[in-house]
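Each lists chain and fold; for instance:
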Amino acid sequence: MNGSNLVVYEDEFKKIDEELNNLHRQANAKVVFLVDKSGQLISSVGATHDLDTTSLASLTAGNIAATGSIAKILGEQEFTILFHEGEKDNLHISLVGERIILVVIFDQRTSIGLVRLRVKKVTENLEKIFEEMTQKAEQEKLESKLEDSPFAEISDEDIEKLFM
C-alpha cells in the first residue's frame, strides 16, 4: 500500500468487518478496531460504547509514529507489533501492510498468546483485502484518466487516417 488516500469499498468493508468480528470472538477480546496511520478510525467491534474511539484511534496512530521513530534510531525499519499491559486491560497493536493499524483490547479472560495467534491469521486476511482495495482503486483511477483524456475517443484508425 502506498501513501495515497485510502478508499474503502462496500464489499471490502463487509469483509473487513467480518474479519474484525471473527478476531473479536476468537480472541475473546473486549474491543477490536482498525485505524489508518493518519489516525482515522476505519472500523471497530466490541464494547466501544464507553470508549472515545476517535481519540483512541488518533493516539494509537501517534503511538505507532513515535515507536517508528524509536525503531529508526535503533536501526530497525519499524516495530510491527506493540504490546501494552495494564492492571485491567491490555493493548495489542500491530501493523497491517504499510498504513493500517490493528488494535485489540483484551483483559484477563484471554491471553497474549491467543491474541497474537488470532491476530497473525487475521492480519494475513486483512492484507489481502487491502491489496484488493488498492488494485481496485488504481484500476478506477486509470479508467477515470482514460475517460478524462481528450484523446480517449481517438482510435489508432483515426490517427492513421490523418496521415493518409
